[in-house]
Structures are given as C-alpha cells and as structure tokens.
Write a structure and sequence with these properties.
Blueprint: H1 8-11, E1 15-26, E2 29-39, E3 42-46, H2 54-69, E4 78-80, E5 83-85, H3 93-97, E6 105-109, H4 117-131, E7 136-140, H5 147-157, E8 162-166, H6 172-181, E9 189-191, H7 193-196, H8 203-206, E10 212-215, H9 223-233, E11 237-239, H10 246-259, E12 289-291, H11 299-304, H12 309-327
Parallel strand pairs: 5-6, 6-7, 7-8, 8-9, 9-10, 10-11
Antiparallel strand pairs: 1-2, 2-3, 4-12
Helix pairs in contact: 2-12, 5-6, 9-10
Length: 328
Amino acid sequence: MVIVLPDLAELLADAHVVSLPMRVRFRGITTREAVVLRGPEGWTEFSPFVEYDDAEAAAWLRAAVDFGWTAHEAASDSVPVNATVPAIGAAQVAELLARYPGCTTAKVKVAEPGTTLDDDVARVAEVRRVMGPDAAVRVDANGLWSVEQAAVALERLAVFDLQYAEQPVASVPELAELRSRIDGLGVRIAADESVRKASDPLAVARAGAADVLVVKAQPLGGVTAAAAIVTDAGLPCVVSSALDTSVGLGMGAFLAARSMAPVFAAGLGTAAMFAADVSADPLLPVDGRIAVRRVDVDRGLLERHAASPERTAWWLDRVRRVHAVLAA
C-alpha cells in the first residue's frame, strides 16, 4: 500500500502540541511531549523522542500519516497488555502494579543508570511476589548491558522464571553472542532497539539473534509498515508503546490486533504511567486489556496541557523539517 503524504498545510490544519505529566520518571523524563493531529480517518500522533534527528523522526511522521490518513480495520475488539515497572524501589512496586488491574504480565526495567544489579534483582523479585507464580515477568535493559554483564545478570534473574529479556545488549552481533552463551538458561531474547532503530529491521531475524521481536508502530513507520516487517521476519512479536499518548496507543492496538502472537501481552498499557492524557476516555487497562479503537481527543484537555509557546514552536518546526525529509 502506498501512503500519500499530505501537504504541510493539511497536516498542520488541526495540530496540537501537548506536554503531559507522568506519574513516575521513565526514560529519564517526567513529562511527555507530543503532537496530535487530525486526519480524515481520525486523530493521530507524532512524538519521536526529542533527541532523535530528523531522519530518524521521519518514520514517526510516516506512521502518523498512515494512521490518520488511512483506514485500518480492527482485527479484534481488545488486546491483553502488560504492566510496566520503571526502575523504582522494590517498596514502590505493589502500589504501581495496582494501576494495572487484571494484568497478568509485567515488564520490568533493569540496568537503569545509577542503579545496581542488586536493585534490579530486588525489583524483579518483588514483582514476582506481588503478581504470583503464574504471572509472566519480562525484563528490559534497553541495550545497556555488555555481553558479560548480561550473562551475569540473567543468570541471577532467571530464577524468577522470566518470559524473556528485552534488548539486554545493544547490537545484533552481541545479541547473537549472548543468546548462544546463555543457551540452557531458559531465558528467551527479545529484540527492540535492534529492530526499531536499525537501518535493516530484519537483520536481527536473519542473524538468529532473537527469539521474539518487540515492535512499535511509530518508530517503524506505522501499522502498515510494521505489520509487513513482522510478516517478513517470521518471528513471534510483541507490540509495545513508544510512551505514546492514548492516540498513539490506539495506533499500537490496531497493530497488535493484526500482528501480535496471542501468547503474549502487548506493552500498550502505558497510559497508566501518565497523570494526564489528551482524551477524556484514555486507553487505560481494564481487566488486563485495552480496547482496539481510535481515540478521540478532548479539546479542553488539549488546552489544559498545551506545551509552552516555545516548545510548541519547536515541535511545529520539527514537523515542517521532517515533512520536508519525507517529501524529498
């Protein structure tokens, strides 16, 4: 399917820059900035992280166009989601998990700068204790361990019966080396950054470097493009959030319903991490699931959480630059 790029005036005709407060620090931030735009098919989102250059952000704008200017059929009414546990102290785990009612899977952040492996072990142990022996527990290192550090850490964490370890090391060769090294430990390897930030998102599958792919709609160019990558990779996938607003989570939900392995829960319950959202009916987990639907924004919330004039100008200028990249 060819996605036609709308002209800049059409793209920005109903665009709003928001700054949403978060309940806990995640990826080093306590507020999440995003642009929500209205296309002919409904609201869509452009929210690449601020450190990404225009070339990398181009996939995120392509995703916004794909969702806002293309009709997508919902393959199911809802998808299961996991709880997301940031690098918090073990004493805070139970309170955080209470924000994810009905979720039977948790993704736990590990390897956070400024924390230790002992902190990680304590956090994962508490998640396992609170959720019980039948829950699925994943860890995510965001590629911050070396192969040696990952091997040591996963040996200690394997006792908690991990569903998988997400991006324990940074590169595809390192993933392949680690996967071979921990063979027999019973911990599957999932690739995230090695898919969404790679010039060739299929390289990890060709190299036999992962058991599971973690895919995110915005960084991979949208529902259409990401679904094609999953099909070509031939590996089970988990659809995850890029810390989107509920509008972007809706995009991810359409992708998850279409492409995700049914044995897994999607990482799309992250609206629970926000103290505010753009919708009066946000995509919060209910009975461990979120609905597969397009989200309508509340214009009062857009006004209440509008970014400062300086940040609004920064984001709109970014849209103009990235639109030029796609147009070229």
